[in-house]
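Intended use. Records like the one below are meant for learning the mapping from a protein sequence to its folded structure. Do not use them to infer anything beyond what is encoded.
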Amino acid sequence: MRVLLVEDDAMIGAAVSQALKDAAYAVDWVRDGELAIDAVRSETYDIALLDLGLPEIDGLEILRKVRSGGARLPVIILTARDALDDRIRGLDLGADDYLVKPFEIGELLARMRAVTRREGSGAAPILTNGKLQLDPATREASYFEEKAVLSAREFALLRALLARPGTILSRSELEGHIYGWSEEVESNAVEFLIHAVRKKLGNTSIRNVRGVGWMVDRST
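Structure written out for the chain above:
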């Protein structure tokens, strides 16, 4: 799942970015409004985390531009502004949630899951195709008699596949769900992760379509 983090504070941005990566999200972190707008126009995101006090363009103006362009991108505002009027303005402009700093990462992750679940973006409490199951809260996967807790990147890969059972995802599509802009990706990284998941759950848990990509079976 790909996240756009818009935060100009270096310390907060680094901490939130690392926590999201640890929780198996692919994160693109930008520090000003212009870059945020460019990112929304050029990339597809599952959710955006938006600070309000940004240089050049205020976060509320970014939100206004995103919504006026017709984007249905889920947005959670993260800000130190705790005045009621600011919360009302943000929600009225189209934010899906509003979290006041300082906040606990666990609460942020829970709110992200809730918002993306409402948007129908594959963040169901349990992802399954009838045979293969994945619990986002614990990263535990099961396939027939096999059960295992996955690493963050193994989980991100399997979550992307289970969000669209029966759909073949290419290497580049899977990389987009696993890695952010700043992360170096080895040429065989996806194959390595698929091998690791198969080792834990069984060789038939993920299917290879030669020359095209990978998939999990359609829901049964």
